[in-house]
Design brief:
The protein has two helices and seven strands. The chain is an alpha+beta fold and 136 residues long. Helix 1 packs antiparallel against helix 2 (113-124). The longest helix is centred in the middle third of the chain and has 14 residues, at 46-59.
Length: 136
Amino acid sequence: MLLPKKVQHRKWHKGRRRALGVATRINALAFGDFGLKSADHGWVSSRQIESARRVLTRYVRRGGKIWIRVFPDRPVTKKGNEQPMGGGKGSPDHYVAVVKPGTVLFEMGGVAKDQVKEAMKLAAYKLSVKTKFIER
């Protein structure tokens, strides 16, 4: 799974403007011929990214090339089970990538279009945001 080697701040504030705006970076194909683009806001966890990556590589039988364009660098904290109220913020539990509409999540190249389209559809089921298939 993807996670940062080293972080400047262990715990982040959640923020209040979570569902606003569209992607201004990572919003166009840069490496491959086909891609999977986000259609709404959300957090994509490192487990979801890894699960989608495995689907893509298995479906094309390790052919072509895959680029993962998002990285989970935002820590999400969680308190232990049956903790009494208070006691401060919980410890970091997992990492997520913040995704806005228009963010390219995955790219693929070197494989036929119909095969890539089916692989991307299967990978989209693994993600927590709505997506759409794009091509160059």
